[in-house]
Specification:
The protein is of the alpha/beta class. Helices cover 27% and strands 33% of the residues. It has 3 domains: 90 residues, D-Maltodextrin-Binding Protein, domain 2, CATH 3.40.190.10; 78 residues, 3-Layer(aba) Sandwich (D-Maltodextrin-Binding Protein, domain 2); 80 residues, 2-Layer Sandwich (Alpha-Beta Plaits). Helix 8 packs antiparallel against helix 9. The longest helix has 11 residues. It catalyses: prephenate + H(+) = 3-phenylpyruvate + CO2 + H2O. InterPro entries: ACT-like_dom_sf (IPR045865), ACT_dom (IPR002912), Chor_mutase/pphenate_deHydtase (IPR008242), Preph_deHydtase (IPR001086), Preph_deHydtase_CS (IPR018528).
Length: 286
């Protein structure tokens, strides 16, 4: 059986590549328009797993992906970290000096600020996807229009690389989380990657002094490292939820005790999943 994995974007996107890194070349990546569509596809049983980018070393957190994790009945079952090298792509025959507009996902544009600043005559245009932007450039056949995307998108859509490695740092990386339906059986094997376990949590508190400290202190008291803390609005004015990652398995004795104590200070505290930390090689050259 072929493992089907939903991702946001078009074929040739960096998420498409991350699916293949984690699941192997035999997996079938399934393109979705939005992060919410990835979740919907997983929950409907149309795919076995989904993959969401959650943070980039240059642009920071991908907040829309965190909102999906906090509001859908998904479980996190793995992570993968991949290098991200951006290229300026144009139609064959286009010249770099002739480009006046460049399209890409806002998170990708945020990873290329220095290069874009060096080209003040080029207008950056936000789009829903890197590879989708490359596809649109190919369809437009406009020598003044370019896309910022990866080499995989150039190969897929027949575009020329006008400039390579335009990201702000050569060690640029993105971390993705692999998700499954919380109440369903995927019917597909999950590859085992990584070593030590980590866990993701979502918490909500009353708007009171020390409320967040009350959630975090039980982990610190037991020597459990906090590796990620992200605040997101709940929708209710001035009330927030917190996405938390800890370097421990939620099922371990100390962690279970910390969770029990932390729940006394929370109006909501759910474990989104425990999964192996990614320890695969991450190439960082240009």
């Amino acid at each position: 059986m072929t493992t089907r994995v939903a991702f946001q974007g078009e074929l040739g996107a960096f998420s498409d590549g991350a699916v293949r890194v984690f699941f192997g070349r035999a997996a079938e990546p399934v393109a979705c328009r939005e992060f919410a569509d990835v979740a919907a596809s997983v929950l409907a049983g149309e795919v076995h797993f989904g993959l969401l980018p959650v943070e980039n070393t240059l642009a920071g957190s991908v907040v829309a992906a965190y909102d999906v994790l906090a509001t859908r009945p998904l479980v996190i079952v793995g992570e993968v970290v991949t290098p991200i090298h951006h290229c300026m792509l144009g139609i064959p025959g286009a010249s770099l000096d002739g480009i006046t507009r460049v399209r890409s996902h806002p998170v990708a544009l945020a990873q290329c600020t220095r290069w874009l600043a060096s080209r003040p005559g080029v207008q950056a245009v936000a789009a829903y996807d890197t590879a989708g932007s490359a596809r649109d450039v190919a369809a437009a056949a406009d020598p003044t229009l370019a896309a910022i995307a990866g080499r995989g998108a150039a190969d897929r859509y027949g575009l020329a690389v006008l400039a390579a490695d335009v990201e702000d740092r050569p060690d640029n990386q993105t971390r993705f989380l692999v998700v499954a339906a919380r109440d369903g059986h995927t019917g597909a094997a999950l590859p085992r990657h990584g070593g030590a376990m980590k866990s993701a949590l979502v918490a909500e508190t009353q708007n009171a002094p020390g409320a967040l400290v009350g959630i975090l202190a039980p982990f610190a008291a037991r020597g459990i490292n906090l590796s990620k803390l992200e605040s997101r609005p709940t929708g209710e004015p001035w009330r927030y939820r917190f996405l938390i990652e800890i370097d421990a398995d939620a099922a371990s004795g100390d962690t279970a005790a910390a969770l029990a104590e932390a729940r006394r200070h929370a109006s909501r505290l759910d474990v989104l999943g425990s999964f192996p930390r990614w320890t695969g090689a991450v190439e960082t050259g240009g």
